[in-house]
Amino acid sequence: MTHFDLLLRGGLVIDGTAAPDAARHADVGVLDGRLTLLPPGAPAAARETEDLTGLVLAPGFIDVHTHSDGVTLIDGELGGDMVRAAVLQGVTTEICGNCGSSLFPALPGRLAAMRAETRVYFGGDVGMYEGFAEFAAAHAAVPRANHLTSLVGHGTLRAGVIGPVDRAATPGELDTMCALLDRALSAGAAGLSTGLIYTPGTYASTDEVVALAAVAAAHGKPYVTHLRDEMSRVEEALEEAVEIGRRSGAPLHVSHHKTAGKYAWGLTRRTLPKLAALRAEGMDVTCDVYPYTAGSTALGAMLPPWASDGGIAALTARLTDSGQRDLMRRAIAEGVPGWENTVGNGGWDRISIACAPRHPETEGHTIAELAAARGQDPVDMVAELLVAEQGEVTIISHSMIEDDVRRVLAAPYSMIGSDGVPKPGGRPHPRWAGTFPRVLGHYVRELGLLSLETAVHKMTGMAAARFGLAGRGVIRDGAHADLVVFDPGTVADGATFVDPLVPPSGIHSVIVAGRTVVRDGAETGARPGAVLST
Protein backbone atom coordinates (compact mmCIF):
# COMPACT_ATOMS: atom_id res chain seq x y z
CA MET A 1 0.00 0.00 0.00
CA THR A 2 1.27 3.47 -0.92
CA HIS A 3 1.89 5.84 2.01
CA PHE A 4 1.63 9.62 1.77
CA ASP A 5 2.07 12.66 3.97
CA LEU A 6 -1.40 13.89 2.94
CA LEU A 7 -4.21 12.14 1.09
CA LEU A 8 -7.03 14.14 -0.50
CA ARG A 9 -10.01 11.94 -1.31
CA GLY A 10 -13.35 12.37 -3.04
CA GLY A 11 -12.88 15.78 -4.66
CA LEU A 12 -13.47 16.93 -8.21
CA VAL A 13 -9.96 17.47 -9.54
CA ILE A 14 -9.68 20.35 -12.02
CA ASP A 15 -6.11 19.86 -13.12
CA GLY A 16 -5.24 23.30 -14.52
CA THR A 17 -4.85 22.16 -18.12
CA ALA A 18 -7.07 22.98 -21.05
CA ALA A 19 -7.54 19.28 -21.84
CA PRO A 20 -11.02 17.83 -22.45
CA ASP A 21 -10.69 15.75 -19.26
CA ALA A 22 -9.39 18.66 -17.14
CA ALA A 23 -12.16 17.95 -14.61
CA ARG A 24 -12.49 14.43 -13.20
CA HIS A 25 -12.92 12.69 -9.89
CA ALA A 26 -9.65 11.41 -8.48
CA ASP A 27 -7.77 11.08 -5.23
CA VAL A 28 -4.48 12.93 -4.81
CA GLY A 29 -1.58 11.93 -2.60
CA VAL A 30 1.14 14.29 -1.39
CA LEU A 31 4.59 13.00 -0.47
CA ASP A 32 7.68 15.13 0.07
CA GLY A 33 6.04 18.09 -1.64
CA ARG A 34 5.06 16.23 -4.82
CA LEU A 35 1.78 14.90 -6.17
CA THR A 36 0.48 11.46 -7.17
CA LEU A 37 -2.91 10.96 -8.81
CA LEU A 38 -4.91 7.91 -7.79
CA PRO A 39 -8.20 6.40 -8.97
CA PRO A 40 -11.07 7.23 -6.62
CA GLY A 41 -10.91 4.99 -3.57
CA ALA A 42 -7.55 3.43 -4.48
CA PRO A 43 -5.80 1.70 -1.56
CA ALA A 44 -3.52 4.22 0.14
CA ALA A 45 -2.62 5.47 3.59
CA ALA A 46 -1.41 8.80 4.92
CA ARG A 47 -0.52 10.63 8.10
CA GLU A 48 -3.44 12.94 7.31
CA THR A 49 -6.48 12.29 5.14
CA GLU A 50 -9.08 14.85 4.03
CA ASP A 51 -12.52 14.11 2.61
CA LEU A 52 -13.19 16.57 -0.25
CA THR A 53 -16.63 15.31 -1.21
CA GLY A 54 -18.52 18.14 -2.92
CA LEU A 55 -15.39 20.27 -3.23
CA VAL A 56 -12.97 21.13 -6.03
CA LEU A 57 -9.27 20.40 -5.81
CA ALA A 58 -7.26 22.66 -8.13
CA PRO A 59 -3.64 23.72 -8.53
CA GLY A 60 -2.79 26.66 -6.30
CA PHE A 61 -3.62 29.95 -7.97
CA ILE A 62 -0.77 31.89 -9.57
CA ASP A 63 -1.20 35.66 -9.32
CA VAL A 64 0.68 36.82 -12.41
CA HIS A 65 0.64 40.51 -11.52
CA THR A 66 1.38 41.80 -8.03
CA HIS A 67 3.37 44.52 -6.35
CA SER A 68 4.05 42.47 -3.24
CA ASP A 69 7.84 42.60 -3.65
CA GLY A 70 8.54 43.93 -0.19
CA VAL A 71 5.43 43.68 1.97
CA THR A 72 6.94 40.92 4.12
CA LEU A 73 10.15 42.94 4.48
CA ILE A 74 8.70 46.24 5.67
CA ASP A 75 10.18 47.11 9.06
CA GLY A 76 11.26 43.47 9.39
CA GLU A 77 7.75 42.14 10.08
CA LEU A 78 5.28 40.05 8.19
CA GLY A 79 2.80 42.74 7.18
CA GLY A 80 -0.21 41.25 8.99
CA ASP A 81 -3.48 41.23 7.09
CA MET A 82 -1.78 42.33 3.88
CA VAL A 83 0.32 39.17 3.70
CA ARG A 84 -2.57 36.90 4.68
CA ALA A 85 -4.95 38.32 2.08
CA ALA A 86 -3.23 36.64 -0.87
CA VAL A 87 -2.93 33.17 0.57
CA LEU A 88 -6.46 33.21 2.03
CA GLN A 89 -7.84 33.57 -1.50
CA GLY A 90 -5.87 30.56 -2.68
CA VAL A 91 -2.77 32.16 -4.18
CA THR A 92 0.22 29.87 -3.81
CA THR A 93 2.60 31.83 -6.09
CA GLU A 94 2.88 35.58 -6.65
CA ILE A 95 4.75 37.19 -9.54
CA CYS A 96 5.98 40.62 -8.54
CA GLY A 97 8.32 43.19 -10.10
CA ASN A 98 5.61 44.36 -12.49
CA CYS A 99 5.04 47.73 -14.19
CA GLY A 100 8.77 48.42 -14.43
CA SER A 101 9.34 48.44 -10.67
CA SER A 102 11.37 45.74 -8.89
CA LEU A 103 13.59 45.79 -5.81
CA PHE A 104 16.65 44.81 -7.84
CA PRO A 105 19.08 45.21 -9.53
CA ALA A 106 20.85 48.28 -8.22
CA LEU A 107 24.41 49.45 -8.58
CA PRO A 108 26.09 49.63 -5.15
CA GLY A 109 26.59 53.38 -5.40
CA ARG A 110 22.89 53.97 -6.08
CA LEU A 111 21.36 51.79 -3.33
CA ALA A 112 20.66 54.60 -0.87
CA ALA A 113 19.11 56.94 -3.43
CA MET A 114 16.95 54.20 -4.91
CA ARG A 115 15.85 53.08 -1.45
CA ALA A 116 14.33 56.51 -0.84
CA GLU A 117 12.44 56.38 -4.13
CA THR A 118 10.95 52.93 -3.42
CA ARG A 119 9.17 54.21 -0.31
CA VAL A 120 6.76 56.10 -2.54
CA TYR A 121 5.51 52.94 -4.18
CA PHE A 122 5.90 50.32 -1.46
CA GLY A 123 4.98 52.50 1.54
CA GLY A 124 7.81 51.38 3.78
CA ASP A 125 11.53 50.76 4.06
CA VAL A 126 11.87 47.63 1.94
CA GLY A 127 15.43 48.19 0.74
CA MET A 128 17.06 47.68 -2.64
CA TYR A 129 19.18 44.72 -3.66
CA GLU A 130 22.11 44.34 -6.00
CA GLY A 131 20.60 41.33 -7.72
CA PHE A 132 17.96 38.61 -7.75
CA ALA A 133 20.03 36.40 -5.44
CA GLU A 134 20.21 39.12 -2.79
CA PHE A 135 16.48 39.79 -3.17
CA ALA A 136 15.76 36.07 -2.69
CA ALA A 137 18.03 35.90 0.36
CA ALA A 138 16.19 38.82 2.00
CA HIS A 139 12.88 37.01 1.58
CA ALA A 140 14.33 33.69 2.76
CA ALA A 141 15.22 35.40 6.04
CA VAL A 142 11.54 36.27 6.65
CA PRO A 143 9.47 33.07 6.21
CA ARG A 144 6.38 33.35 4.02
CA ALA A 145 3.27 31.22 3.49
CA ASN A 146 3.35 31.15 -0.31
CA HIS A 147 5.89 31.38 -3.09
CA LEU A 148 7.19 34.49 -4.83
CA THR A 149 9.12 35.22 -7.97
CA SER A 150 9.96 38.50 -9.66
CA LEU A 151 10.35 40.20 -12.99
CA VAL A 152 13.13 42.74 -13.54
CA GLY A 153 11.78 46.28 -13.65
CA HIS A 154 12.92 48.50 -16.51
CA GLY A 155 12.21 51.57 -14.37
CA THR A 156 14.47 50.14 -11.67
CA LEU A 157 17.23 49.52 -14.20
CA ARG A 158 16.89 53.05 -15.56
CA ALA A 159 16.78 54.68 -12.12
CA GLY A 160 19.86 52.76 -11.02
CA VAL A 161 21.97 53.48 -14.08
CA ILE A 162 20.74 56.89 -15.26
CA GLY A 163 18.76 58.24 -12.32
CA PRO A 164 15.18 59.57 -12.26
CA VAL A 165 15.82 62.02 -15.09
CA ASP A 166 14.16 62.78 -18.43
CA ARG A 167 16.81 62.03 -21.03
CA ALA A 168 17.89 59.30 -23.39
CA ALA A 169 20.28 56.61 -22.24
CA THR A 170 23.79 56.82 -23.63
CA PRO A 171 25.11 53.71 -25.44
CA GLY A 172 27.26 52.93 -22.40
CA GLU A 173 24.33 53.29 -20.02
CA LEU A 174 22.17 51.04 -22.16
CA ASP A 175 24.95 48.45 -22.22
CA THR A 176 25.08 48.58 -18.42
CA MET A 177 21.31 48.14 -18.13
CA CYS A 178 21.44 45.18 -20.50
CA ALA A 179 24.27 43.59 -18.51
CA LEU A 180 22.38 44.02 -15.21
CA LEU A 181 19.25 42.54 -16.78
CA ASP A 182 21.20 39.60 -18.20
CA ARG A 183 22.70 38.87 -14.77
CA ALA A 184 19.31 38.98 -13.06
CA LEU A 185 17.66 36.73 -15.64
CA SER A 186 20.55 34.28 -15.44
CA ALA A 187 20.05 34.17 -11.66
CA GLY A 188 16.39 33.19 -12.06
CA ALA A 189 14.28 36.33 -12.49
CA ALA A 190 11.13 35.66 -14.52
CA GLY A 191 11.33 38.28 -17.28
CA LEU A 192 11.48 42.02 -18.05
CA SER A 193 8.70 44.41 -17.09
CA THR A 194 8.02 47.99 -18.14
CA GLY A 195 5.69 50.64 -16.77
CA LEU A 196 5.70 53.15 -19.60
CA ILE A 197 3.29 55.58 -17.92
CA TYR A 198 5.53 55.80 -14.83
CA THR A 199 8.71 57.80 -14.37
CA PRO A 200 11.46 57.07 -15.17
CA GLY A 201 10.18 54.40 -17.58
CA THR A 202 8.11 56.92 -19.50
CA TYR A 203 11.31 58.77 -20.41
CA ALA A 204 12.58 55.78 -22.43
CA SER A 205 12.35 55.44 -26.19
CA THR A 206 10.98 52.39 -27.98
CA ASP A 207 14.51 51.56 -29.14
CA GLU A 208 15.77 51.45 -25.55
CA VAL A 209 13.07 48.97 -24.57
CA VAL A 210 13.71 46.85 -27.67
CA ALA A 211 17.37 46.47 -26.68
CA LEU A 212 16.40 45.30 -23.19
CA ALA A 213 13.61 43.02 -24.40
CA ALA A 214 16.15 41.34 -26.70
CA VAL A 215 18.05 40.29 -23.56
CA ALA A 216 14.86 38.72 -22.20
CA ALA A 217 14.36 36.99 -25.56
CA ALA A 218 17.84 35.48 -25.36
CA HIS A 219 16.78 33.85 -22.09
CA GLY A 220 13.43 32.71 -23.48
CA LYS A 221 11.64 34.93 -20.98
CA PRO A 222 8.77 37.35 -21.61
CA TYR A 223 8.57 41.08 -22.08
CA VAL A 224 5.75 42.15 -19.73
CA THR A 225 4.40 45.65 -20.25
CA HIS A 226 2.13 48.19 -18.66
CA LEU A 227 1.41 49.99 -21.92
CA ARG A 228 2.43 53.60 -22.47
CA ASP A 229 -1.28 54.49 -22.61
CA GLU A 230 -4.31 52.44 -21.57
CA MET A 231 -6.74 55.23 -22.30
CA SER A 232 -7.48 57.26 -25.44
CA ARG A 233 -4.24 56.16 -27.17
CA VAL A 234 -4.38 52.53 -26.12
CA GLU A 235 -4.32 51.22 -29.69
CA GLU A 236 -1.18 53.21 -30.49
CA ALA A 237 0.43 52.01 -27.25
CA LEU A 238 -0.44 48.41 -28.09
CA GLU A 239 1.21 48.85 -31.49
CA GLU A 240 4.39 49.98 -29.73
CA ALA A 241 4.31 46.87 -27.53
CA VAL A 242 3.85 44.66 -30.58
CA GLU A 243 6.76 46.39 -32.30
CA ILE A 244 8.95 45.77 -29.25
CA GLY A 245 7.96 42.11 -29.22
CA ARG A 246 8.61 41.67 -32.94
CA ARG A 247 11.92 43.51 -33.07
CA SER A 248 13.30 41.91 -29.91
CA GLY A 249 11.93 38.41 -30.44
CA ALA A 250 10.63 38.29 -26.86
CA PRO A 251 7.26 36.76 -25.99
CA LEU A 252 4.88 39.66 -25.30
CA HIS A 253 2.61 39.85 -22.27
CA VAL A 254 0.32 42.86 -21.82
CA SER A 255 -0.28 43.69 -18.17
CA HIS A 256 -3.83 44.27 -16.82
CA HIS A 257 -5.20 44.89 -20.29
CA LYS A 258 -7.91 47.53 -20.22
CA THR A 259 -9.34 50.39 -22.22
CA ALA A 260 -9.84 52.97 -19.49
CA GLY A 261 -11.22 56.50 -19.42
CA LYS A 262 -14.34 57.77 -21.13
CA TYR A 263 -12.59 58.21 -24.48
CA ALA A 264 -11.52 54.55 -24.59
CA TRP A 265 -14.59 52.75 -23.33
CA GLY A 266 -15.47 49.97 -25.72
CA LEU A 267 -12.09 49.86 -27.46
CA THR A 268 -11.55 46.26 -26.35
CA ARG A 269 -13.73 45.53 -29.40
CA ARG A 270 -10.65 46.53 -31.42
CA THR A 271 -7.69 45.64 -29.17
CA LEU A 272 -8.77 42.06 -28.51
CA PRO A 273 -9.29 41.13 -32.19
CA LYS A 274 -5.87 42.65 -32.83
CA LEU A 275 -4.29 40.36 -30.23
CA ALA A 276 -6.22 37.37 -31.56
CA ALA A 277 -5.02 38.08 -35.10
CA LEU A 278 -1.42 38.35 -33.95
CA ARG A 279 -1.71 34.99 -32.22
CA ALA A 280 -3.23 33.45 -35.35
CA GLU A 281 -0.21 34.73 -37.27
CA GLY A 282 2.09 32.94 -34.83
CA MET A 283 3.08 35.74 -32.44
CA ASP A 284 3.48 34.69 -28.80
CA VAL A 285 1.30 37.29 -27.08
CA THR A 286 -0.88 37.04 -23.97
CA CYS A 287 -2.35 39.37 -21.36
CA ASP A 288 -3.72 39.43 -17.84
CA VAL A 289 -6.75 41.10 -16.29
CA TYR A 290 -8.29 41.82 -12.89
CA PRO A 291 -12.07 41.53 -12.41
CA TYR A 292 -12.84 45.12 -11.39
CA THR A 293 -13.70 48.38 -13.13
CA ALA A 294 -11.33 50.39 -10.93
CA GLY A 295 -7.55 50.49 -10.88
CA SER A 296 -5.05 51.68 -8.30
CA THR A 297 -1.73 53.46 -8.54
CA ALA A 298 0.35 56.30 -7.10
CA LEU A 299 -1.19 59.77 -6.86
CA GLY A 300 1.94 61.24 -8.42
CA ALA A 301 1.11 59.41 -11.65
CA MET A 302 -1.85 61.79 -12.08
CA LEU A 303 0.63 64.60 -12.83
CA PRO A 304 2.48 65.14 -16.13
CA PRO A 305 5.77 63.19 -16.45
CA TRP A 306 7.94 66.31 -16.46
CA ALA A 307 6.78 67.08 -12.91
CA SER A 308 8.78 64.10 -11.62
CA ASP A 309 11.95 64.75 -13.61
CA GLY A 310 14.73 64.45 -11.02
CA GLY A 311 12.87 62.25 -8.55
CA ILE A 312 10.72 62.78 -5.47
CA ALA A 313 12.69 65.73 -4.13
CA ALA A 314 12.36 67.55 -7.44
CA LEU A 315 8.64 66.75 -7.62
CA THR A 316 7.89 68.07 -4.15
CA ALA A 317 9.87 71.23 -4.89
CA ARG A 318 7.77 71.87 -7.99
CA LEU A 319 4.57 71.21 -6.06
CA THR A 320 5.36 74.06 -3.67
CA ASP A 321 5.77 76.48 -6.60
CA SER A 322 2.47 78.10 -7.64
CA GLY A 323 3.75 78.71 -11.16
CA GLN A 324 4.65 75.05 -11.58
CA ARG A 325 1.24 74.03 -10.29
CA ASP A 326 -0.37 76.29 -12.90
CA LEU A 327 1.63 74.47 -15.58
CA MET A 328 0.44 71.13 -14.20
CA ARG A 329 -3.16 72.34 -14.30
CA ARG A 330 -2.74 73.36 -17.92
CA ALA A 331 -1.11 70.03 -18.82
CA ILE A 332 -4.04 68.12 -17.31
CA ALA A 333 -6.58 70.33 -19.09
CA GLU A 334 -4.85 70.32 -22.48
CA GLY A 335 -2.85 67.10 -22.43
CA VAL A 336 0.81 66.40 -23.12
CA PRO A 337 1.96 64.42 -26.19
CA GLY A 338 2.69 60.84 -25.18
CA TRP A 339 1.16 61.12 -21.70
CA GLU A 340 -1.81 59.02 -20.59
CA ASN A 341 -3.44 61.83 -18.49
CA THR A 342 -5.81 59.86 -16.26
CA VAL A 343 -7.54 62.96 -14.90
CA GLY A 344 -8.09 64.42 -18.36
CA ASN A 345 -9.67 61.13 -19.44
CA GLY A 346 -11.97 60.96 -16.44
CA GLY A 347 -11.91 63.62 -13.77
CA TRP A 348 -10.90 64.17 -10.15
CA ASP A 349 -14.31 62.87 -9.05
CA ARG A 350 -13.29 59.36 -10.20
CA ILE A 351 -10.09 59.29 -8.14
CA SER A 352 -10.17 58.50 -4.41
CA ILE A 353 -7.41 58.27 -1.83
CA ALA A 354 -6.49 54.69 -0.92
CA CYS A 355 -3.58 55.31 1.43
CA ALA A 356 -2.12 58.50 2.90
CA PRO A 357 -0.37 57.35 6.10
CA ARG A 358 -0.12 60.77 7.76
CA HIS A 359 -3.61 61.87 6.65
CA PRO A 360 -5.93 58.89 7.12
CA GLU A 361 -8.94 61.22 7.19
CA THR A 362 -8.56 61.61 3.41
CA GLU A 363 -8.81 57.88 2.70
CA GLY A 364 -11.95 56.76 0.92
CA HIS A 365 -12.75 60.27 -0.34
CA THR A 366 -12.38 61.52 -3.89
CA ILE A 367 -9.99 64.30 -4.81
CA ALA A 368 -12.97 66.36 -5.95
CA GLU A 369 -14.68 65.95 -2.57
CA LEU A 370 -11.56 66.80 -0.59
CA ALA A 371 -10.80 69.86 -2.71
CA ALA A 372 -14.38 71.13 -2.45
CA ALA A 373 -14.41 70.66 1.33
CA ARG A 374 -11.24 72.75 1.59
CA GLY A 375 -12.33 75.32 -0.98
CA GLN A 376 -9.28 74.51 -3.11
CA ASP A 377 -8.50 73.74 -6.69
CA PRO A 378 -7.88 69.95 -6.98
CA VAL A 379 -4.29 70.36 -8.17
CA ASP A 380 -3.46 72.55 -5.18
CA MET A 381 -5.05 70.03 -2.84
CA VAL A 382 -3.10 67.17 -4.48
CA ALA A 383 0.11 69.19 -4.23
CA GLU A 384 -0.33 69.83 -0.52
CA LEU A 385 -1.08 66.18 0.19
CA LEU A 386 1.86 64.86 -1.83
CA VAL A 387 4.26 67.26 -0.15
CA ALA A 388 2.95 66.42 3.32
CA GLU A 389 3.19 62.68 2.58
CA GLN A 390 6.58 62.94 0.82
CA GLY A 391 4.98 61.44 -2.26
CA GLU A 392 3.66 58.31 -0.48
CA VAL A 393 0.00 58.42 -1.55
CA THR A 394 -1.88 55.74 -3.47
CA ILE A 395 -5.23 56.18 -5.17
CA ILE A 396 -8.09 54.22 -6.66
CA SER A 397 -9.26 55.26 -10.11
CA HIS A 398 -12.76 54.29 -11.24
CA SER A 399 -11.97 54.40 -14.94
CA MET A 400 -13.37 51.32 -16.72
CA ILE A 401 -16.70 49.84 -17.74
CA GLU A 402 -17.93 46.33 -17.06
CA ASP A 403 -18.36 45.30 -20.69
CA ASP A 404 -14.67 45.82 -21.38
CA VAL A 405 -13.65 43.86 -18.27
CA ARG A 406 -15.84 40.94 -19.31
CA ARG A 407 -14.47 40.89 -22.85
CA VAL A 408 -10.88 40.67 -21.60
CA LEU A 409 -11.75 38.03 -19.00
CA ALA A 410 -13.35 35.90 -21.72
CA ALA A 411 -10.42 36.17 -24.14
CA PRO A 412 -8.84 32.71 -24.47
CA TYR A 413 -5.31 34.08 -24.01
CA SER A 414 -5.97 36.16 -20.86
CA MET A 415 -4.91 35.05 -17.40
CA ILE A 416 -5.71 36.42 -13.96
CA GLY A 417 -3.63 38.91 -12.00
CA SER A 418 -4.72 41.00 -9.03
CA ASP A 419 -2.38 43.97 -9.62
CA GLY A 420 -2.48 44.10 -5.83
CA VAL A 421 -0.49 46.85 -4.13
CA PRO A 422 -0.32 45.63 -0.51
CA LYS A 423 0.87 48.75 1.25
CA PRO A 424 0.31 48.68 5.01
CA GLY A 425 -2.60 50.80 6.22
CA GLY A 426 -5.29 52.71 4.41
CA ARG A 427 -8.00 51.32 2.15
CA PRO A 428 -6.24 49.29 -0.54
CA HIS A 429 -8.05 48.09 -3.63
CA PRO A 430 -10.14 44.99 -2.75
CA ARG A 431 -8.50 43.07 -5.60
CA TRP A 432 -5.63 42.13 -3.27
CA ALA A 433 -8.03 40.05 -1.17
CA GLY A 434 -10.78 39.18 -3.64
CA THR A 435 -9.59 38.72 -7.23
CA PHE A 436 -9.60 34.93 -7.60
CA PRO A 437 -12.77 34.15 -5.61
CA ARG A 438 -14.50 36.98 -7.47
CA VAL A 439 -13.75 35.37 -10.83
CA LEU A 440 -14.91 31.96 -9.58
CA GLY A 441 -18.01 33.22 -7.81
CA HIS A 442 -19.27 36.16 -9.86
CA TYR A 443 -18.02 35.53 -13.37
CA VAL A 444 -18.16 31.72 -13.39
CA ARG A 445 -21.05 30.71 -11.12
CA GLU A 446 -23.31 33.77 -11.29
CA LEU A 447 -22.77 35.05 -14.83
CA GLY A 448 -21.57 31.94 -16.64
CA LEU A 449 -18.99 34.02 -18.51
CA LEU A 450 -16.40 31.25 -18.16
CA SER A 451 -16.55 27.55 -17.42
CA LEU A 452 -14.98 26.47 -14.16
CA GLU A 453 -12.30 24.52 -16.02
CA THR A 454 -11.41 27.56 -18.17
CA ALA A 455 -11.23 29.90 -15.19
CA VAL A 456 -8.96 27.52 -13.27
CA HIS A 457 -6.72 27.14 -16.34
CA LYS A 458 -6.36 30.94 -16.56
CA MET A 459 -5.36 31.03 -12.88
CA THR A 460 -2.96 28.09 -12.95
CA GLY A 461 -1.62 26.15 -15.93
CA MET A 462 -1.71 29.03 -18.40
CA ALA A 463 0.08 31.31 -15.93
CA ALA A 464 2.75 28.73 -15.07
CA ALA A 465 3.48 28.11 -18.75
CA ARG A 466 3.80 31.82 -19.53
CA PHE A 467 6.24 32.51 -16.69
CA GLY A 468 8.33 29.35 -16.79
CA LEU A 469 7.12 27.86 -13.51
CA ALA A 470 7.95 24.25 -14.30
CA GLY A 471 5.90 21.62 -12.50
CA ARG A 472 3.45 24.16 -11.15
CA GLY A 473 -0.06 25.18 -12.12
CA VAL A 474 -1.11 21.59 -12.87
CA ILE A 475 -2.21 18.50 -10.97
CA ARG A 476 -0.31 15.55 -12.36
CA ASP A 477 2.11 12.91 -11.13
CA GLY A 478 5.30 14.53 -9.90
CA ALA A 479 4.04 18.11 -9.93
CA HIS A 480 4.74 20.42 -7.02
CA ALA A 481 2.15 20.11 -4.26
CA ASP A 482 0.73 23.64 -4.44
CA LEU A 483 -3.06 23.20 -4.20
CA VAL A 484 -6.30 24.93 -3.33
CA VAL A 485 -9.56 23.35 -2.20
CA PHE A 486 -12.76 25.35 -2.73
CA ASP A 487 -16.52 24.96 -2.78
CA PRO A 488 -17.75 25.90 -6.27
CA GLY A 489 -21.22 26.59 -4.89
CA THR A 490 -20.17 29.16 -2.29
CA VAL A 491 -16.79 30.57 -3.33
CA ALA A 492 -17.05 34.37 -3.45
CA ASP A 493 -15.08 37.51 -2.70
CA GLY A 494 -15.82 39.38 0.52
CA ALA A 495 -13.55 42.39 0.06
CA THR A 496 -15.11 45.76 -0.83
CA PHE A 497 -13.83 49.27 -1.40
CA VAL A 498 -15.10 50.16 2.08
CA ASP A 499 -13.72 47.05 3.78
CA PRO A 500 -10.99 45.84 1.42
CA LEU A 501 -9.39 43.00 3.38
CA VAL A 502 -12.45 40.88 4.19
CA PRO A 503 -11.47 37.27 3.42
CA PRO A 504 -13.38 35.33 0.78
CA SER A 505 -15.86 32.55 1.43
CA GLY A 506 -15.63 29.04 0.06
CA ILE A 507 -11.83 28.64 0.14
CA HIS A 508 -11.40 25.61 2.39
CA SER A 509 -7.72 24.69 2.22
CA VAL A 510 -4.52 25.98 0.66
CA ILE A 511 -1.47 23.75 0.41
CA VAL A 512 2.01 25.07 -0.42
CA ALA A 513 4.98 22.76 -0.99
CA GLY A 514 2.90 19.93 0.50
CA ARG A 515 2.08 21.73 3.74
CA THR A 516 -1.34 23.09 4.66
CA VAL A 517 -1.10 26.84 5.12
CA VAL A 518 -4.87 27.49 5.20
CA ARG A 519 -7.38 25.10 6.76
CA ASP A 520 -11.13 25.83 6.97
CA GLY A 521 -10.46 29.37 5.75
CA ALA A 522 -7.90 30.22 8.46
CA GLU A 523 -4.11 30.31 8.39
CA THR A 524 -2.31 27.46 10.10
CA GLY A 525 0.93 29.36 10.70
CA ALA A 526 2.96 27.17 8.34
CA ARG A 527 5.53 29.11 6.30
CA PRO A 528 6.86 26.83 3.54
CA GLY A 529 6.97 29.48 0.79
CA ALA A 530 10.12 30.20 -1.17
CA VAL A 531 11.44 32.59 -3.81
CA LEU A 532 11.28 30.65 -7.07
CA SER A 533 13.83 30.80 -9.87
CA THR A 534 12.67 30.37 -13.45
UniProtKB/TrEMBL annotation:
One Pfam family in the UniProt entry: Amidohydro_3
Source species, domain of life: Bacteria
Cellular component annotations (GO), alphabetically ordered: cytosol
Domain Amidohydrolase, chain residue ranges per copy: 48-518
A GO molecular-function descriptor: hydrolase activity, acting on carbon-nitrogen (but not peptide) bonds, in linear amides
UniProt xrefs under InterPro entries: Amidohydro_3, D-aminoacylase_insert_dom_sf, Metal-dep_hydrolase_composite, Metal_Hydrolase, Metallo-dep_Hydrolases_sf
SUPFAM superfamilies named among the record's database cross-references: Composite domain of metallo-dependent hydrolases, Metallo-dependent hydrolases
Protein name in the entry: Dihydroorotase/N-acyl-D-amino-acid deacylase
Source species: Streptosporangium canum
